[in-house]
Amino acid sequence: MLDISKLKQLRQETGISIALCKKALEESNNKLGQAKKLLQQWGIEKVKDKSGRTTSQGSIFSYIHHNRKVAGFIELLSETDFVSQNQEFQKLGTELSMQVASIPAKNQEELKNQEYIRDTGKKVSGLLNDAVLKFGENIKIGRFLRWVLGE
């Protein structure tokens, strides 16, 4: 029998659809840890499936550090304008622009392999993969720029 409180908790912690959370809990006999692993495994498969899709929509995000000496700009791309206007997508873009301002990266691969500044247990690529799972669309980083005063 499905534990509704665990379903709510899993949904809240992962942001993944209720249907997938329910399926993961059913297959793991209501064990949260196993359900999260299943979601992650399924997510990797979904990310691979969606990685070839065209990302012609999106938004540009910026972050200027409080000392006004460093800024980060990033173009975050999605398949549809509907997703790019989503509040969670907007939050991800803001977080990634802060990441760009905080740690220099020469190219996208370097940026994706960085530890996420707010959670060193995650990489930037993991944030993108989580977004693909949440939105059901391909999400990619386009261009990015780190601007430092005087450089």
Automatic annotation (TrEMBL):
Q: Where is this region: Involved in Mg(2+) ion dislocation from EF-Tu?
A: 80-83
Pfam families, sorted: EF_TS
Q: Which UniProt keywords are present, listed alphabetically?
A: Cytoplasm, Elongation factor, Protein biosynthesis
- What top-level branch of life does the organism fall under? Bacteria
Instruction: State the Gene Ontology terms under molecular function.
Output: translation elongation factor activity
Q: Where is each Translation elongation factor EFTs/EF1B dimerisation domain found?
A: 73-145
Which InterPro entries does the UniProt record give?
Answer: EF-Ts_dimer_sf, Transl_elong_EFTs/EF1B, Transl_elong_EFTs/EF1B_dimer, UBA-like_sf
Family the entry assigns: Belongs to the EF-Ts family.
Q: What is this protein called?
A: Elongation factor Ts
Origin organism is: Candidatus Roizmanbacteria bacterium RIFCSPHIGHO2_01_FULL_39_12c
